[in-house]
Specification:
172 residues, alpha+beta, two-stranded antiparallel ribbon, 11 strands, globular, binds adenosine monophosphate
Length: 172
């Protein structure tokens, strides 16, 4: 296309914007997160991967925060993909498995945990893939890195992420 014809036209956004949360609390956590991010960048039909600075947080077990468990390193990636939600989840499980994640207990310590926080505006109540992620709004270790990447982020169905974060601090 000539430059004149292209003038005034931004390239159409492709794929669906997706928010992925990454966490690790065993082994070399920073190295595991870096490797997982490289693998996210290498996924087919996926691009524009932006990643926040990792943050440390106390492990949350089924019955609440567990200061005795190894701390987590958490981050969030925003990306665009043409992979269907279930295909993306399978790909995330493959990445987890490559990093030796062992599911000893639900909510247990793990070398790598990957969750889909939001897949565009898609909503799903399927227990195998609940969208948006049902615990996202209550997790500072998801909201903080997400806000660092996108101060205007919105969690579909729940609203602005900065408002959700303030509510967690009791400011809501
Ligand atoms: P967990 O061991 O707590 O990471 O839970 C993993 C299980 O949660 C997997 O069997 C997934 O199929 C399921 N799951 C449901 N919704 C999601 C989601 N939004 N992102 C990642 N896993 C999910």
């Amino acid at each position: 296309m000539s430059r004149r014809l292209a003038q005034g036209f931004a390239p159409a956004a492709w794929g669906t914007p997706v928010v992925v949360a990454l966490g690790a609390n065993l082994g070399d956590r920073a190295a595991t997160l870096r490797a997982a991010i490289d693998e996210l960048r290498a996924l087919p039909l996926t691009g524009d991967v932006q990643v926040a600075e990792p943050i440390a947080s106390v492990a949350v077990k089924l019955d609440g925060p567990d200061a005795a468990a190894p701390q987590y390193l958490n981050t969030v990636a925003i990306l665009r993909t043409r992979l269907a939600p279930t295909v993306l989840l399978d790909a995330l499980h493959e990445i987890e498995n490559r990093h030796g994640r062992v599911r000893v207990e639900r909510w247990g310590d793990r070398t790598l945990d990957l969750d889909i926080i939001a897949y565009g505006e898609v909503t799903s109540a399927d227990p195998d893939l609940t969208l948006p992620h049902p615990h996202a709004a209550a997790r500072a270790f998801v909201l903080d890195p997400w806000l660092a990447l996108d101060p205007d982020a919105v969690l579909p169905g729940s609203g602005r992420v900065d408002v959700l974060r303030a509510a967690l601090r009791g400011e809501g």
